[in-house]
Amino acid sequence: MKITTWNINSVRLRIDQVTRFLKEEAPDVLCLQEIKCLEDNFPSKALVAAGYEHHAVSGQAGYHGVAIVSKLPLKNVEKRGFCEKGDCRHIAASLPGGYRVHNFYVPAGGDEPDPKKNDKFAHKLDFLDEMAGWFSELGPRSKAILVGDLNVAPCENDVWSHKQLLKVVSHTPVEVERLAKVIDAHGWIDVARELIPEPEKLYTWWSYRAKDWRASNRGRRLDHIWVSPALKKAALGKGRDAYRIHDDARGWERPSDHAPVSLTFDL
């Protein structure tokens, strides 16, 4: 089973990129963030035509929004709210075999990494705290998969310069600490770093501001695939080649600033 996560930064604007990716890579499940549309405007027809009949969508006009697109049936769809904001930042669904997929879009947090001065940063920290509290309730045998744009690059080599980004939102110590608490709450396994340990650099996002993003390569690993302890063997069984950052998609015409990230499970 192959699962992909991708912050698409407007699914309607980039539906051609999505269908191209589905044709070329054929994941069983594609989790999208920042779809930026309501459920009624989600481009379902194009996705069904591409062979993906099953959709779970939590949409919001012009902002946020998440969706799960699948070749496999989706059951028990859940949309959880966080921080009483009304934002559409989470959706979950069950796949055949009892696998539960959680798709998240964590708040970016603005520019100032001070919750007293920046409400957006305070919201981000509160969101991560709520995630940790919720996942502490999951049982040890849960077959859970967590994917999405978590907007935190936790490791030193998840950013182009650890020293220069320590005070930049997405890599500050307080965010890294909060994300670690989310991981610890359920014993989540960060698949990327299990398969590809540091000091190897890993990036999934490159800013639009760079004239030549590949040449400057000032990236960050903001997009994640985690699994619960019960799925560790399945997630790691096919080795490092089973995990892939599709950075070629970052170079397509009118791209998202995030690359798709895939994992093939050994089930």
UniProtKB/TrEMBL annotation:
Annotated GO MF terms: DNA binding; double-stranded DNA 3'-5' DNA exonuclease activity; endonuclease activity; metal ion binding
Positions of the catalytic residues: 105, 149, 258
Entry binding sites for Mg(2+): 7, 34, 149, 151, 257-258
InterPro entries given in the database record: AP_endonuc_1, AP_endonuclease_F1_BS, Endo/exonu/phosph_ase_sf, Endo/exonuclease/phosphatase, ExoIII-like
Co-factor note (free text): Probably binds two magnesium or manganese ions per subunit.
Annotated site residue numbers, Transition state stabilizer: 151
Keyword Nucleotidyltransferase: no
Annotated site (Interaction with DNA substrate): 258
Positions of the record's site feature: Important for catalytic activity: 223
Keyword line: Hydrolase, Magnesium, Manganese, Metal-binding
A single GO BP: DNA repair
Domain of life the protein comes from: Bacteria
Pfam families hit by this protein: Exo_endo_phos
Family: Belongs to the DNA repair enzymes AP/ExoA family.
Protein name: Exodeoxyribonuclease III
